[in-house]
């Protein structure tokens, strides 16, 4: 939350997470290299480095892409979401070691610039079995570089959340390029089909998780509500909103979160000003609606971040009649104070 941009320090939880990530990466590399030497003692150091870092980067990329839908499907995965950017930068660093070392190994001795050699040493761009797959890895790495370089909140602030988010959606383009890079590469130098099966399993998992989370969202958004009377629409019974939590309703194509805060109901726009996080999936902490993604806070009565912070979201009128909750989908300007509805 910012009066102006202010860097967020490393807290204990983030340090803990980073250490686990670091230990995991080291263990993976050690186990991979150990097994590879066990199966093929003649494997060179260069090949070991290229293969261990590439497979680790690919594994981390699958985890990164699965965290979003997993957190949507089960809130126990939310702590992973808070730290996803550290995972992204780690994945980029490891992929860069793989890519950089491959260029050094396969193009370092060329009589042209290694980057020229990367694109022109093999020009069979029309062939499936001899395609210059390394070029695809290069473009994916460029996208990861751009994402890692702008991952800090400073860039989020400078670029605005919507541009930043669009930029970071590039991860799906990069993922597609990597899948082609691996498939087209593996069919050229690997005869064992197990690698393709492992890749299919990974891609299948990512696709299924996205479909599951997506259909859940669509189902929520297409819920039908009775015609409005007096501008108000009945959304649910009061007992359906747990204390300090919300339920989210899509009215007039906007998601509205109705929160139960002590003995009051308040309705605010569901979209967080930081990175468009789902406020209605958060909870009330210290009297403030707290975003589940990175903890931005808003006061229930007016949708404003508590002073000195300046973020604001729209508010809505809410009523309770005979134990039923009614919401008026007409938004008030961001930060407008509304009385809410007392729970008798
Ligand atoms: C400049 C960019 C890149 C270059 C030049 C490059 C080059 C290569 C080469 C030469 C291979 C075959 C290695 C072998 O003989 O075993 C390979 C395989 C592979 N690459 Fe890349 N790569 C690049 C980027 C990436 C990126 C960004 C990823 C991201 C995850 C990646 C993941 C893989 C994987 C999983 C394999 C198959 C496993 C292996 O045999 O190493 N590569 N790449
Ligand atoms: S999206 Fe980051 S705090 Fe809400």
Defining key terms:
344 residues; alpha+beta; seven-stranded antiparallel beta sheet; three-stranded antiparallel beta sheet; 10 strands; 50% helix; disordered N terminus; binds protoporphyrin IX containing FE; binds FE2/S2 (inorganic) cluster
| Regions with little confidence, pLDDT below 50 for 5+ residues | 2-8
Distance between the termini: 34 Å
Q: What best-fitting shape do the alpha-carbon axes yield?
A: elongated
What letter string, H or E per element, gives the SSE order? HHHHHHHHHHEEEEEEEEEE
**What structural category characterises the helix and strand content?**
alpha+beta
Mean pLDDT: 91
Q: What share of the residues does DSSP label as strand, in percent?
A: 5-15%
Write the layout of secondary structure elements.
Layout: H1 12-39, H2 45-73, H3 78-82, H4 84-107, H5 114-120, H6 134-149, H7 153-159, H8 161-168, H9 170-189, H10 194-221, E1 233-237, E2 246-251, E3 254-261, E4 264-269, E5 283-285, E6 288-290, E7 297-298, E8 315-321, E9 324-332, E10 341-342
The chain binds protoporphyrin IX containing FE and FE2/S2 (inorganic) cluster.
FE2/S2 (inorganic) cluster binds at residues 272, 274-275, 277, 291, 293-296.
